[in-house]
UniProtKB/TrEMBL annotation:
One of its GO terms (molecular function) is GTPase activity. Residues 817-838 have a biased composition (Low complexity). GO terms for biological process: endocytosis; intracellular distribution of mitochondria; mitochondrial fission; peroxisome fission. The keyword GTP-binding applies. This is GED domain-containing protein. Residues 35-328 form the Dynamin-type G domain. Residues 735-862 are annotated as: Disordered. GO terms for cellular component: membrane; microtubule; mitochondrion. Residues 752-765 have a biased composition (Polar residues).
Length: 862
């Protein structure tokens, strides 16, 4: 009598070419299956489609079933090779198990049933009892119609077993009732999709010939995750329920012939036990199936498509091909996981049980921290932290803010632009001239200009204001002149916006530095050490830098608030003369009835001597006893000089000296050496969770490295001789498939130089068995062995005209456009339009949300 665990059936499942399957077995044996996806067979379909019977026929493991009780959870049968036959049962809690006590209860079931004798498993009654206990542990019962996303795992070990995973999923259903809820329906669908979406799973899509295939949606679900049906094998069950010669029988025959729904793996048909003969032996079941397919239209089908014996062999071959095709991707997944674990271990550092170990740990972090800071300030972005060209193209927020010097320079440039446009409180306009048009929305979209509104004042209006102030401020000055303090008073009024703009700028610079430091710590340290290091050491230092920065800014602004202009050199005098000339020219033109600021703006006109005398007399009579126009000229001349000095002072004395230069010294090896033991332990002491995490990562890493060696050895042995190098193969074929050249065919090809002059010295090509022109039409080989077409790669010529999206419009803008000649035009925008005091400004092309920039170390950094 066939035993419950039929070794013969397992032998049929194992192909002669089993080496590749053995490699996957080794990976499962060392536990890699829990780290990366490994191949498995998933049996899925609608309720009562015969799924469990298919799995039972493949494995010869009899599942305890009831006619009125369908599968309520996923059951994974893991067949493993071992020296002794034994069984291991466990439950993996589902994603819906958020309660810790429930998770522990399920895990306890796993530990209680860890060691079972073969005798226990051989008794189907005891096996049924075991399944019932698992169902109860999951909160299911025979009267309960709910489903669970918990997974029952049954591992069968034996000396002849292949490494294979067979998964039986709950049956799909499409209508709800008192016994089948909508929640259960959704849960079964999610469970089925979770297994189907694993790219290394072979899907056995089971449909029953007893039901209309339109009502069985399993193929549509499979197509969502495998659009081309590359890893779907269709299984038709219960063919004996279709009457001979009926339309239903013909329909399912067309399915099996791959005419209805074309699957790349094809179709197969099985006749399983009927309800009446559910207790017959496995051998009797196979004999009845073989007899059925030898009669009627079923006899016309290929023997490779019918019966369980053919399915075992077919499934083995399909699985082998599937594994072979996925082998490169599997190796890549393992390598990526290795790199991820190695990076995580580097962040955790070596075990640090003593204070000396902890101090050495911080010294290592501080050394790399100081090196990255130095490179960021010097603009030499060579460390891996800064990323490469590929990351630059991605244009992410993190990549942008990592390059600190570039960020600060851009902020400085926008600060200078904002000062030049919005630095003066009122813009002076000569009488008779039109107020210049300004696109207010465009200007407000620029950094530091979000609330800017242009204000204008006529020269004559300002002179009247000065006269009134001069009258109230008379001292011992001579008639025809005003109190010299009026120049300083007018200057302070004009430079009133300087402080607000400068405060916004230095705050943005400081927050950019703070965010940059957080990115460096995120790169260098683990999630436990990072907040401690920031909170106890680096954060307070940054706050001190901020206080020092604003202290220097207050010092720089104080003179513009209370000091008196003290110009030095001849520049001031030349600017006064220029301002006076412009004013007098404007007045003279107005008196002569001309428009435009300069005489050249109009066509030539003739004036009489009396007109000129009258205009000159009006110009002279416009003078007043307080020389108000001269006060305005002097103020403007000094303003133009002082604003440049102020911009330079803010960028150099404040940002460079108080912020960036200090940044280099906030966390160095000298800092760590100067810390006492208590401070070291407070930051670098290793909690139990870190120790457990390091142990887990090391164990995973050992498994992954062993898996990589296992697969690499097979990859080299089996694939290297089958795949010659592409470039060498191309050259070989080019030489062997062309005839030897005739002497008259060997001649230089004429090439054109960049200037259009033809020269056979500049380029000479030779053809083999044809003309030079014909040879030149062959595709050339690119830098990496790829054929090139079209325009050759220009390695040393001038750069092509391009639109630099990082500098379109305003340098922080986002609406700029580029013309064909590469010139930038259009408007710009900035996230600082909403708040210039909250976050570092950056180019809108980086899609940076200013509101998301963290001001403290927290979850925003992941």
């Amino acid at each position: 009598m066939s035993s419950l665990l039929d070794e013969k059936a397992m032998d049929q499942l194992q192909s002669q070419q089993s080496e590749l399957l053995d490699k996957i077995d080794e990976l499962r044996a060392i536990g890699v299956g829990g780290l990366v996806e490994l191949p498995q067979i998933v049996v899925c379909g609608s309720q009562s489609s015969g799924k469990s019977s298919v799995l039972e026929a493949i494995s010869r493991v009899r599942f305890p079933t009831k006619s009125n009780l369908c599968t309520r959870f996923a059951t994974e049968f893991v067949l493993r090779r071992a020296s002794e036959i034994r069984i291991k049962v466990s439950i993996d809690p589902g994603d819906s198990r958020s309660d810790v006590e429930e998770q522990q209860k399920l895990q306890a079931f796993s530990s209680e049933e860890r060691d079972m004798s073969p005798e226990t498993f051989s008794s189907s009654a005891k096996f049924k009892t075991l399944i019932d206990r698992a169902r109860e542990c999951m909160g299911l019962s025979s009267v309960n119609s709910e489903f669970s996303d918990d997974v029952l795992k049954i591992e069968i070990s034996g000396p002849e077993q292949p490494e294979l995973t067979l998964v039986d999923l709950p049956g799909l259903y499409y209508s709800t009732s008192s016994e089948q809820s909508a929640e259960g329906k959704a849960l079964v669908e999610r469970l089925t999709e979770r297994y189907m979406k694993r790219s290394r799973s072979i899907i056995l899509a089971v449909i029953s010939a007893k039901n209309d295939y339109h009502n069985q949606n399993i193929l549509n679900i499979a197509q969502r995750f495998d659009p081309n049906y590359e890893r779907v094998l269709g299984i038709v069950t219960q063919p004996d329920t279709a009457e001979a010669g009926s339309e239903q029988e013909e329909t399912y025959l067309q399915f099996i012939q791959n005419k209805k729904v074309k699957l790349q793996l094809g179709w197969h048909v099985l006749r399983n036990r009927s309800f009446e003969k559910r207790n017959i032996s496995d051998d009797a079941r196979d004999a009845q199936e073989k007899s059925f397919f030898e009669n009627g239209k079923w006899a016309s089908l290929s023997r490779n498509q019918v019966g369980i014996e053919a399915l075992r062999t077919r499934l083995s071959k399909i699985l082998l091909r599937h594994i072979s095709r996925n082998l490169p991707g599997l190796i890549m997944d393992i390598q990526e996981r290795i790199l991820r674990n190695e990076k995580a271990l580097r962040k955790l550092g070596d075990p640090r049980a003593t204070v000396q170990d902890q101090r050495q740990f911080l010294v290592g972090i501080s050394s790399r921290f100081a090196r990255i800071i130095n490179q960021a300030l010097n603009g030499s972005y060579t460390d891996d932290f800064f990323g490469g060209f590929k990351e630059g193209i991605a244009n992410t927020d993190e990549f942008y803010f990592r390059r600190l010097r570039a960020v600060i320079r851009e902020l400085n440039e926008h600060f200078a632009e904002a000062m030049s446009i919005g630095g003066c409180r009122r813009m002076i306009v000569f009488d008779g001239l039109q107020v210049p048009g300004v696109d207010i929305e465009l200007e407000r979209s620029k950094p530091y200009m979000h609330d800017w509104t242009p204000k204008y004042v006529l020269q004559s209006t300002l002179e009247e204001e000065i006269k009134e102030q001069a009258l109230k401020s008379r001292g011992i000055e001579l008639p025809g002149s005003a109190n010299p303090l009026l120049v300083g008073s007018l200057f302070r009024d004009q430079c009133e916006p300087w402080e607000t703009i400068a405060e916004s700028h230095v705050l943005n610079a400081w927050e950019s530095v703070q965010y940059f430091v957080q990115l460096v710590l995120k790169y260098l340290t683990d999630d436990h050490t990072r907040p401690l290091l920031f909170r106890h050491l680096i954060g307070p230092e940054l706050e001190k830098m901020k206080d020092s920065l604003f202290e220097k800014l207050s010092e720089l602004v104080s003179y513009s608030k209370s000091g008196h202009p003290l110009p030095v050199g001849e520049t001031f005098l030349s600017k006064v003369l220029k301002s006076r000339t412009n004013r007098q020219v404007a007045m003279l033109k107005r008196n002569l009835g001309l428009t435009g600021l300069f005489f050249g703006d109009n066509n030539q006109k003739s004036f009489s001597a009396s007109d000129l005398e009258r205009a000159a007399s009006q110009l002279q009579s416009s003078s007043d006893q307080f020389a108000t126009a001269e006060i305005i000229d002097q103020m403007q001349a000094y303003y133009e000089t002082a604003i440049i000095t102020f911009i330079d002072n803010v960028t150099i004395l404040a940002i460079e000296n108080r912020l960036l230069c200090t940044l280099e010294h906030i966390f160095t090896s000298r800092t760590v050496v100067g810390m006492d033991d208590h401070q070291i332990e407070e930051i670098a002491a290793e909690p139990l969770s870190i120790q457990a995490e390091r142990k887990r990562l090391n164990e995973e890493l050992n498994k992954l490295r062993k898996a990589k060696r296992t697969l690499n050895a097979f990859s080299v042995d089996e694939q290297s001789l089958r795949s010659p190098p592409t470039l060498a193969q191309t050259i070989h074929r080019g030489l062997t498939h062309t005839s030897a050249p005739k002497p008259e065919d060997v001649r230089p090809a004429v090439a054109s130089s960049a200037s259009g002059v033809k020269s056979n010295k500049q380029a000479a090509s030779f053809s083999h068995g044809g003309s030079a022109e014909k040879f030149q039409q062959r595709p050339s080989i690119g830098l990496f062995g790829q054929p090139t077409t079209g325009t050759p790669l220009n390695l040393f010529g001038p750069p092509q005209t391009r639109n630099d999206s990082h500098r379109n419009g305003s340098q922080f803008g986002g609406n700029g456009t580029s013309s064909q000649n590469g010139q930038v035009s259009g408007s710009s925008s900035s996230p600082l339009g909403s708040s210039i005091h909250s976050t570092p400004t950056k180019n809108q092309n980086h899609h940076f949300d200013a509101a998301k920039l963290p001001t403290t170390f927290g979850p925003a950094l992941g």
